[in-house]
Amino acid sequence: VSDALRATHVPKVLLLNPERDAETRGRSPADLVREIRRYAGGRNGDAISHVIALRHGGGDGFYQPHDRADIEALGVEVCEIDCPDRRPRAHELEQVADALGRIAS
User: Fold this and answer.
1) Which end of the chain is more exposed for a tag (fewer CB within 10 A), N or C?
2) Other Cβ atoms closer than 10 A to 52
3) Which residue, among 27, 16, 24, has the nearest Cα to 82 in the 3D structure?
4) pLDDT digits 0-9 by tens, 38-66
5) Alpha-carbon span 64 to 37, nearest angstrom
C-alpha cells in the first residue's frame, strides 16, 4: 500500500469523523496524519494531501478549530464541514462530495 500511495500522483484525502472512536482516543487529527505518513513511508502529499474534517459544535468532537493550524503546519490542506447532528446527514455528505470534486479538479 505504501508503494502505491507514493507512486500515485493524485490527491490523497483523509476524512475525519465528527466524533472520537476507539481508533482516535488519545490522538489528535494531526497525530493521525503523522501516523499515516509514517506507515506509508511518505512525506508531504505522498500519503495525505487533504483532510476533510467533519466537525460538530458540541465541543467534544474529534476535530476542534485549533486542529486546523496543526494539520496545515504539516503541509496538508484542510476543508471543514459543520456536522451539527454529530452524524453526517445527506446535506453534509453532499458537501463532502463537493469538496472531493474540488480537490480532484
Assistant:
1) C
2) 19
3) 16
4) 888 765 557 889 999 999 867 778 998 89
5) 21
CA dist 45 to 9, 22, 42, 68, 75, Å?
9, 26, 8, 17, 8
**Neighbouring residues of 39: CB distance < 8 A, sequence distance ≥ 6:** 2, 47
Per-residue model confidence as pLDDT tens digits over 20-30: 888 888 899 99
Instruction: Give the pLDDT of residue 50.
Output: 95
Rounded mean pLDDT, 4-27:
86
pTM: 0.88
- Tell me which DSSP letter residue 77 carries: E
Cell for 37?
Answer: 505518513
> For 74, what's the count of Cα atoms within 13 Å in the CB-facing half-sphere?
27
